[in-house]
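[step 3/7] inverse_fold.run input=structure_tokens len=104
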């Protein structure tokens, strides 16, 4: 999957580093097929969603990207067929970024 891009609308957040993307693809004709892909953000390791820090990380990601169209670079698919992708930081910038590893 070298340098393959995926573009779609972020529809929901699974946890602090995983989201669902609504993707439109052509099936060889003029018909467009919409499907949902689960995307895990490469290089991002947030706490488990069952913890307070994990809940806050999920809410922060939701605030940043839900409802936005994102273009991501696919790195690979894991053993559950979930996409692991590089998401450009321009999509992940927020003036109120939550960092659960910070001691501040």
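[step 3/7] decode complete -> sequence:
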């Amino acid at each position: 999957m070298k340098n393959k891009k995926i573009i779609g609308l972020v529809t929901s957040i699974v946890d602090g580093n995983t989201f669902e993307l609504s993707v439109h693809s052509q099936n060889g004709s003029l018909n467009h097929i919409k499907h949902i892909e689960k995307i895990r953000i490469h290089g991002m390791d947030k706490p488990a969603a069952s913890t307070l820090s994990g809940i806050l990380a999920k809410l922060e990601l939701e605030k940043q990207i839900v409802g936005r169209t994102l273009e991501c670079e696919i790195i690979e698919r894991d053993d559950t067929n979930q996409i692991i992708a590089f998401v450009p930081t321009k999509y992940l910038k927020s003036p109120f970024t939550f960092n659960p590893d910070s001691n501040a």
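[step 4/7] annotate
The helical segments are 52-65.
The chain has a mean pLDDT of 84.
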